[in-house]
Write a structure and sequence with these properties.
Elements: H1 4-18, E1 25-30, E2 33-39, H2 40-47, E3 54-56, E4 61-63, H3 70-86, E5 97-100, E6 110-113, E7 123-135, E8 138-146, E9 157-159, E10 161-164, H4 171-183, H5 187-190, E11 194-205, E12 208-220, E13 234-241, H6 242-251, H7 260-272
Parallel strand pairs: 1-4, 7-12
Antiparallel strand pairs: 1-2, 3-4, 5-6, 7-8, 7-10, 8-9, 8-13, 11-12
Helix pairs in contact: 1-6, 1-7, 6-7
């Protein structure tokens, strides 16, 4: 059983990490729907694109009302994103689109380069997987170390599997795709991942405001399974006891810092499995 004091420390760390700075955020409104949150500095930059693209007021930033369709909004925002990238404002460019809608699965209002989503403070969606190993000695959890070449959280520890849900993909498809790319887990095994719930992460970042809904999953892995990264985005994997996983996410610093997203997902697992024996040693 995880020490309640450790759980309290993890919660406190996550609260600090997700506390927003004392600055103003204005809603980003598209087709009368507030889909994002933009700070003053970024709102001022968007105003320079002109009122046909952005109506920037004290109470909101509204996408040009002359953009009536998903294709027209997508094309206009793609041009804006390319300009922002040229200025160095979007360092986490991915060449992958997010579908932005009023809610998950609803018809998209527009599509946008993934690396531009935080600039507009858009609600995005991701799927993460706790890769766990259970045997007579207890339960262990696999963690991955992010490549130092990653634009976001380089070199930090992460969940075994996790990734944003790109346009056109379902939660299940994302789990299967990311499981193979990040850990070499084939579809037959990845499809056994079970939903564990939904978490919400919000934090100010170098390229804007992260507002992400995470679909959490658990996947029981064979004791002899060894992760094998396929896409170069993970540099190593580590199998740890649940007690060690809790310690790592509670520490939140140094060479073994765990990302905020992954820390929330691990905490969620520990709270959903309070009686799990995590005394296994590796």
């Amino acid at each position: 059983m995880t020490d309640p004091a450790i759980l309290a420390t993890i919660r406190a760390r996550l609260e600090r990490a997700q506390a927003l700075p004392s600055i103003r955020y204005r809603p980003f409104v598209v087709a009368d729907i507030a889909v994002g949150q933009i700070d003053d500095a970024r709102a001022a930059r968007l105003a320079r694109f002109g009122s046909l693209l952005f109506d920037v007021r004290d109470d909101a930033v509204t996408l040009g009302r002359g953009l009536h369709s998903e294709p027209s909004r997508t094309a206009a925002l793609a041009s804006v994103a390319r300009s922002l990238r040229a200025e160095g404002a979007l360092p986490a460019w991915r060449d992958e689109l997010y579908a932005i809608a009023a809610e998950f699965g609803a018809p998209p209002l527009f599509h946008l380069e993934r690396g531009a989503a935080r600039y507009f403070g858009l609600r995005t969606f991701a799927a993460h997987v706790n890769g766990v190993v259970r045997d007579d000695h207890g339960t262990s959890m696999w963690l991955a170390r992010r490549s130092v070449s990653k634009a976001v959280d380089p070199g930090l520890l992460d969940n075994l599997v996790g990734g944003g849900i790109a346009a056109g993909l379902s939660v299940r498809q994302t789990v299967i795709k990311e499981a193979w790319e990040e850990a070499g887990i084939d579809e037959s095994l990845a499809s056994r991942a079970t939903p564990g719930g939904i978490l919400h992460v919000q934090r100010a970042m170098f390229d804007g405001l992260q507002r992400e809904t995470v679909f959490v999953h658990d996947l029981a892995l064979p004791p002899k399974f060894l992760p094998a990264n396929q896409d170069g985005e993970a540099s190593e994997h580590r199998l740890v006891s649940l007690a060690e996983a809790a310690r790592l996410v509670a520490t939140g610093e140094g060479a073994d810092e765990v990302t905020v997203d992954a820390s929330a997902v691990v905490l969620d697992y520990l709270m959903r499995h309070p009686k799990t024996n995590g005394d296994r040693r590796r």
